[in-house]
Amino acid sequence: MIKIKFSYFLQIIGLIISSFYFWACNKGVTGNFYHNMTAQFNPYFIARNRLDSVELDIFMTRKDNYNRVLDVVPIEDTASLRKYDPKLEDCLKKAYIVHNRHEESKLLDASYIIVGKARFYLRKYEKAIEILKYVNVKGKTPEDQNRALIELLYVYTELRDEKAALAVLNALRTRELGKEKREFYLARGHFFRRQNDYLETAKSLGSAVLEMPRGERRGRIYFILGQIYQRLGKNDLARRDYLEVLKNNPPYELAFYARLYANQVTEIGAETDTRKAQRYYKKLLRDIKNKEYQDKIYYEMGVFALRQNKVEEAMANLQKALRVPQPNPLQKAYTYLKIAEIYYKPLRKYEDAKMYYDSVMTALPKNAEEYASVEKRQKTLLEFVKYLNEYRLCDSLQRLAQMPEAQRNDYLAKQLIAQETKKYDTEDSLRKVQEKLAARNRNKKTELGTLDEQLQANTATVGWYFDNPTAVQRGLNDFKRKWNNRPLEDNWRRSNKVIIGNGSNPQTPEISEVKIDPIEIRKKAIEQRVAERTQAILVALPTKPEQMDSLDKRIETDLYELGKINHFKLEEPENAILDLEKLLQRFAQSQYEPESLYILYLANQDIRNSTQQQKYKDLILSKFPKSSYAKILQNPNYLAEVRANDDSAKAIYKRAYSFYEVGNYTQALSELQVIKQGYAENSITDKVELLQLILDFKITGKKEEFKITLEKFKEQYPESTLLAYVDGLIKQTEK
Predict the structure, then answer these.
(1) Tally of CB atoms within 10 A around 414
(2) What single DSSP character describes residue 511?
């Protein structure tokens, strides 16, 4: 009887629970409570934890490049993010449960935001944008709407969509932010950092850091602020923020760089300050914990010396950074870059700069923000050095060809011996350094050995040596390291030996050691190199007038190109003047004279030499009055007018040319008159003039007059690109 009553009791309890469950799933206060509770402590909780763990791992495993201003949010590249895909897919599934089963939950919008962020990390940017926009429009609370916009800003920043990102920023500025204020400042700072707008980045991060609790992330933001202020030349603010990093319990690497850069921006007011800073660098070098940062320390010592205009000391420290055993490859690229920049300016040794820029391009990652500017400068120097070397070669060959034979041979011998001796000694010293480093690495490996070898050696049984294979193998390795591979023979220790028979028994040779004289080897090697180069130069010497003329043409072009590069790309007006004046003195009727005169006018304007500037202006106006350069000098608005008229003139010219092609010469001439009367200032004046000459000839058929007008055209437009075509027309009239 009791059992029957108890079963009824259980059925009633089950019915009540089922009724409650059914009731809870419907709308109402209790239903909302149920959905909120089950969503928060089940799918939403798991999805949020999955996403948090991914973001934490991205932050903790980041690889920061301390030679540039750090990213505010270290988002990894696409390839690196793929390892998180399984966890992010699971995060999506859990977040979608809230949508599918608990649509009445107040966490629905928060779950959608998690979906948007997960899609972002999964590189599904369009879908991420779609759902974040949905939350912004349909979200139930201002907080969720603001958070969706902040995440949307991150997406547009990553996509480099500046216009869309700015629209989001403007929308957020109009909203009242609560707890989202910190994330807004960080997202805004991240956007402007990607734009390399350091002032706006500093404003945003300066506000964000005040909202952040103490810890590594806050220390990192202070470090970025220090880097920005250091770049902007505000050393006092930079030092303040670098020291703030140390108050936030940073990891060792961040603390190391904060102290290093704080020392770098210390104001140097006296010699004692300099010595204090140098002692600090030496202290860092002695600290065994900084062994992996030695190349960076030497690099910063070089930068510190540059601040004091001690170029030689800076170069010495930078070279030490390169010679550190096993330097960091990325740091090596920036060390090459700093040396290249010093050679470029202030030393202005462009050939040396070019070699180091070449090294930078082989070591600097393509995604580095400096890559584009470095590549541009490297290409400029490559072009400059190409023309410079060709000019020197051609000029030297001409001068050597004009020397008497005895004088030429004496000159070559002295010059080439000096060059090849220096080159040989440099190569030999580099080889010795490399061998020394290699030997040091081998000795380290020999002393330490591998853990496996040590364990085997320690656990080997005592017995005959050759019963222990580990000991035998180690002995063989040690022998090869010391003696290399030697055949099993008598006198195997001797590195150099000759066999001399005794005439009676060829089976028993006598061994006599031959001594090697390194001085003699060096002398013979240099002599061989000098002989080879001398022969190559003698073969290349011009012996015929046409060969001298060919070299002249190359020299003319080289001087012109060097002048242009010096003025427009290297911004060296003095060198441009030297090159172009040499060109005009050597080649009186140079094809490059009009533009060379104009560049000389501009270069003298740059160095404020008004006398020479007026001289070249007068030459252009008197010798080339119809040239575009003369028009620019006479009318400062000439180029603006040309640009304004160009589109219209080109359209009409195209129409005129089409009439010419179908044989409607009268209509074509009419169109050309429209250009001359209404759009006189344009960049196709020579084309218009030539087409008119051709049309006149087609109508009149007078060959002699046509030839004369073509010759006048060449005089009127000496820099025209149509001159070769005109020469062809002249030849046709002569047939």
Answers:
(1) 10
(2) E
Pair of tokens at residue 342 = 């010093």
Contact 573, 612 (CB under 8 A): no
**pTM surpassing 0.90?**
no
Q: Is 510 helix (H, G, I), strand (E, B) or coil?
A: strand
DSSP letter for each residue of 190-228: HHHHHTT-HHHHHHHHHHHHHTSPSSHHHHHHHHHHHHH
Q: What is the DSSP letter of 289?
A: G
Instruction: Give the single-character DSSP code of 462.
Output: S
The Cα–Cα gap between 491 and 38 comes to 88
Instruction: Please give the full DSSP string across 234-264, using - where no structure is assigned.
Output: -HHHHHHHHHHHGGG---HHHHHHHHHHHHH
Round to whole Å and give the CA distance between 220 and 217: 5
Q: Which helix (H) or strand (E) holds 566?
A: none
Distance CA 540, CA 521 (A): 29
**Coil, helix or strand for 637?**
coil
**638-735, superfamily in CATH?**
Tetratricopeptide repeat domain (1.25.40.10)
pLDDT tens across 108-155, in order? 888 889 999 999 999 999 999 999 999 999 888 999 999 999 999 999
| Cβ contact 87:46 at 8 Å | no
3-state secondary structure of 74: coil
In angstroms, the CA 574 to CA 724 distance is 34
* C-alpha torsion sign, points 122, 126, 127, 133: positive
Which residue is associated with the tokens 């800076």? Answer: 314
Closest CA to 92 of 69, 66, 112: 112
Outline where 40-174 has alpha helix (H): 45-60, 78-81, 85-101, 108-121, 125-138, 142-158, 162-173
Smallest CA-to-CA distance from 225 within 72, 59, 64 is with: 72
If DSSP codes are grouped into helix, strand and coil, which group holds residue 512?
strand
Computed on alpha carbons and rounded to an integer, the radius of gyration of the chain in Å comes to: 39
Q: In whole angstroms, what is the distance from residue 330 CA to residue 325 CA?
A: 14
Helix (H, G, I), strand (E, B) or coil at 635: coil
What whole-number distance in Å separates Cα of residue 524 and Cα of residue 423? 14
* Rounded Cα gap, residues 601 and 715, in angstroms: 22
- Residue 673 CA: distances (Å) to CA of 426, 628, 652, 711: 69, 20, 10, 22
Rounded Cα distance between 693 and 438, Å, is 75
Per-domain residue ranges for the chain? 2-33, 270-327, 638-735
The CA-based dihedral angle spanning residues 570, 574, 579, 582, taken in that order and rounded to the nearest 10 degrees: 170
The residue type at 53: S
How far, in Å, CA of 157 to CA of 30, rounded?
42
Instruction: Give CA torsion, residues 327, 333, 336, 337, to 10 deg.
Output: -150
Give which of 358, 360, 294 is closest to 328, Cα–Cα: 294
**26-35, 212-221, 492-501 — which one is most confidently predicted on average?**
212-221
Mean pLDDT of 574-600: 93
Joined together, the tokens standing for residue 141 give 């609370």
